[in-house]
């Protein structure tokens, strides 16, 4: 069955990867019965922010997810995260935890590379000043490319001979080699289509093989660059440099430690803060706005007040938010993830017992260009499906593509057609 999407977090020591992971997985402010869960020491559940179907159908007041939360049509959907440890230069040669790092990496569908954009930690995470963080971005990709290319070239002679002997297609031969990285024939086909190579595989030069490996790396491991510690004074010049070197659509500016700080204060009743927002209100702010009780918030000491004001100036007002929610959203965007809402009744949108008034209890994330049949297999396994209904009870064909607002509310009727 199609597996759930998996997002890998990578980053050198002291880049803020742990803080970013914690800020993505903190469910203390969520409503629902899906608390922060560590699946194992390396896997955890984060929350992707999406627009829920309940808003589209005007039933937000009755939307009660089984997992995550939905507040005024803005839904938090669980998504699995993988903490990929051991990132140091030379990982493909086994340095640090290199072998484990690369082995863990292959399970991910996309990567979030947490980069210390302040330049205050060197390549190995040691404290310094004036380090160029763009170097970290370059060598992460070069490590992955070197790992894949090394494995391929080690056996290239026998790969080529077998390819000729069995008269295989290039996609088939490469997929046999790349399947160990969690690849599929579709990923390999897209890689070769983008390169539009004219020469047959058996005539590929070393340069052509390099191009294939580089293109495959980009296709198999699309990467979001999370520029962390944006509140540091040295961050601006490094952000400007990186923005000129990288696709701006892959960059997110964030301050994970600021997000954790604000959520902690909100949980303790000192501020009013909605995660991902640019606004944070203290008791004094609410009193000034006409609420004599200050929203029931606790008093803050001067030290915390000053820290909040600095955070507003350096992060929230400058960048619009701490950027943490946008990190996962960007990863979902580059993967083309689509939320699908399975229901029992496509008129009332209920999923449980007939008398239940709760709607859109479940939401699953599927990959780009998934069909209705793909969703059915993910949800129902090999159970026989008699027919499928979309919103309003309209029959839906198995080969229809799901997209936001199109074939994304589905009911699978069990039985023989």
Automatic annotation (TrEMBL):
<dbReference type="InterPro" id="IPR027417">
    <property type="entry name" value="P-loop_NTPase"/>
</dbReference>
<feature type="domain" description="OBG-type G">
    <location>
        <begin position="5"/>
        <end position="274"/>
    </location>
</feature>
<dbReference type="InterPro" id="IPR013646">
    <property type="entry name" value="YGR210-like_G4"/>
</dbReference>
<dbReference type="InterPro" id="IPR031167">
    <property type="entry name" value="G_OBG"/>
</dbReference>
<dbReference type="Pfam" id="PF01926">
    <property type="entry name" value="MMR_HSR1"/>
</dbReference>
<dbReference type="InterPro" id="IPR012675">
    <property type="entry name" value="Beta-grasp_dom_sf"/>
</dbReference>
<dbReference type="InterPro" id="IPR006073">
    <property type="entry name" value="GTP-bd"/>
</dbReference>
<dbReference type="Pfam" id="PF08438">
    <property type="entry name" value="YGR210-like_G4"/>
</dbReference>
<dbReference type="GO" id="GO:0005525">
    <property type="term" value="F:GTP binding"/>
</dbReference>
<keyword id="KW-0547">Nucleotide-binding</keyword>
<keyword id="KW-0342">GTP-binding</keyword>
<keyword id="KW-0378">Hydrolase</keyword>
<dbReference type="GO" id="GO:0016887">
    <property type="term" value="F:ATP hydrolysis activity"/>
</dbReference>
<dbReference type="GO" id="GO:0005737">
    <property type="term" value="C:cytoplasm"/>
</dbReference>
<protein>
    <submittedName>
        <fullName>P-loop containing nucleoside triphosphate hydrolase protein</fullName>
    </submittedName>
</protein>
